[in-house]
Amino acid sequence: MNAGAAAKGLPRRDDFSDWYSEILWRAEIVDTRYPVKGVCVWQPFGFKMRSLIYSILRSLLDDSGHEEVLFPLLIPRSELMKEEEHIKGFEGEVFWVTRGGYEELDVPLALRPTSETAIYPMLNLWIRSHRDLPIRIYQVVNVFRYETKHTRPLIRVREITSFKEAHTAHASREDAEEQVHVAVEIYKRFFDRLAVPYIVTERPEWDKFPGAERTIAFDTLMPDGRTMQIATIHMLGDKFARTFDITFEDCDGNRKFVQQTCYGISERCVAAVIAVHGDDHGLVLPPEVAPVQVVIVPIVFSRDEMRDDVLSVCSELRDALDDANIRVVLDDSDERPGAKFYKWEMKGVPLRIEVGPRDLKTGKCVFVTRHDLNKFHVNLSTEEVVGMVRKTLARIYEEMKANAWRRFNDMIISLSAETTAASSAESDASDASSDTSASDEDVLSLIGAKMRGGIVNVFMCPKCGKALKELTGASVLGTPFDGRKKGKCVVCSQECAELYVARTY
RNA sequence: GGGGCUGUGGGGUAGCCAGGUCAGCCUCCCAGCUUGGGGUGCUGGUGACCCGAGUUCAAAUCUCGGCAGCCCCA
């Protein structure tokens, strides 16, 4: 056993499924033992992490003209059912409250699966004139979805506990479209702060939010090569406005429907931080969202004459860091140092400071950075330590971000027409030239095989994309949101945009 | 959507096929001693057969149902 050894009993990160469940438990993020399917309990450490992550999101929204609100959990059936396309997308997964006490309710109440139908009837009342626009509101709430597939903590759940949903209304289509771009920029900044890499794509026609004109989504990559959708942004146009009769009087005195957008992020962003950065020792957290940023571990011998000196130096450091608004813990519990190292590594504490008798003699202390487990010495003065902690935390963030993006980009596989043609011809040389439909299938299978390693990026038209989905079980993420590259479909040679495809969560 | 597997102290498990002993082990937790620069060691202690029904003299073990969890395929 040495510093290179993984945490005892923690499955390797390669077994992502086991690693993920185990780490949620061991790092005290959530307790999944609550006896209802698809829900779980946030523990103090996990809740703190969640709060830090969502306070970034809140500040980004607050600073860009959004205001926080809170709408009710219950939605009357009559409102929920108003927008036909919307309800078609959701009705299979709505939880219903049908009884109050001993009595059947006249109007069943839905637990919101999302809040359009709760919020928009109120926008109808709030919006009268163009002076009331734009409206940009958001809330962070729990929403309920009756998932029938297997659930997974923070990733696919029946109670989404941390749904941040923003809703905007605008006087013109251009303003709403501009808001879509603003939302994309806000989300980019958010995931950059979490050091979580992403691609931004426009979802295909068949995978849009029910009722939306366009859906743009962020996806990140899990260690096993599957993608996870971590944010969505929808252009609603005036579809909901027509349903809920949300109109305003413009400066010419004409009544017009508002143009709307909505965009959301759930606790999957917490799962992303855990999955993207974690390693065989446990969590690795970006300093900004780490509930504990620095842990000080005193190396004390019960009968050592320097014991009290060590402890008082540690306390001074703790107080100095605390005064500098750094989240610090002095672990003076009665455990051996090694046990403390493993414990705090599991919890992803970005920086550990060790101080022992040896260090007091040399006038230095030991810094150990969690993301790479490197050690170095720092002069043992409070000013130097505080300064070096700041610098080190900033460096940890930059390195984590760079590493995460490098791993992410390594898992994006670009396929050109030449590669696919060559490989499929090779795999089936005998009849590749004569039978075109067989060779098309070969190309699709090849892409399916490549997807095992991550996201495949290829020129493919929507129609062939759908065929790929049906043949291989692949998901078509979509076309790059800000890309304008055109090429020829690798299957049917029709002119088309790039497509991202992958296996998904 | 379809198929398979599992449920034993707080966590991980043995026992189940072939019904019958005080339900064994590791870990955590509690007490005491010991130890202390990468999971100290010893002694003692608390704590469990998912829920319900059935079969049986007898059920952790067999059957059915419920609830919960996991895996595979689409």
**Helix content range:** 25-40%
Query: What's the overall average pLDDT, rounded?
Result: 92
Oligomer: single chain
* Straight-line distance between termini: 36 Å
CATH fold type of the largest domain: BirA Bifunctional Protein, domain 2
What Rg, in angstroms, do the CA atoms define? 27 Å
Uncertain spans: 428-436
Q: Would you tell me the structural class of the helices and strands? A: alpha+beta
Q: Care to count the β-strands?
A: 24
Proportion of residues in extended strands = 25-35%
Which CATH class of the largest domain applies here? Alpha Beta
Walkthrough of the structure:
There is one protein chain. By secondary structure, this protein is α+β, with helices and mostly antiparallel strands. The chain has 3 domains: 16-277, BirA Bifunctional Protein, domain 2; 292-398, 3-Layer(aba) Sandwich (Rossmann fold), CATH 3.40.50.800; 412-502, Translation Initiation Factor IF3 (2-Layer Sandwich), CATH 3.30.110.30. 37% of the residues lie in helices and 26% in strands. The chain contains 15 helices and 24 strands. It has helices at residues 16-26, 44-62, 77-80, 84-90, 116-126, 173-193, 239-244, 268-277, 307-323, 337-346, 357-362, 382-410, 417-427, 436-450, 462-472; strands spanning 30-31, 41-42, 67-68, 74-76, 95-100, 103-111, 135-144, 159-170, 199-202, 214-221, 227-237, 247-249, 255-257, 259-265, 294-298, 328-330, 351-355, 364-369, 375-379, 412-415, 455-459, 475-480, 486-488, 495-502. Strands 3, 7, 8, 9, 10, 11, 14, 20, 21, 22, 23 and 24 form a 12-stranded mixed beta sheet that branches. A 5-stranded mixed beta sheet has the order 16-15-17-18-19, with helices on both faces. Strands 4-6-5 form a 3-stranded antiparallel beta sheet. Helix 2 packs antiparallel against helix 6 (173-193) and helix 14 crosses helix 15 (462-472). It starts with 15 loop residues before the first helix and ends with a strand. It binds one RNA strand of 74 nucleotides through residues 1-3, 5, 7-9, 17, 21, 25-26, 32-33, 35-37, 148-151, 297, 299-304, 335-343, 354, 356-359, 366, 473.
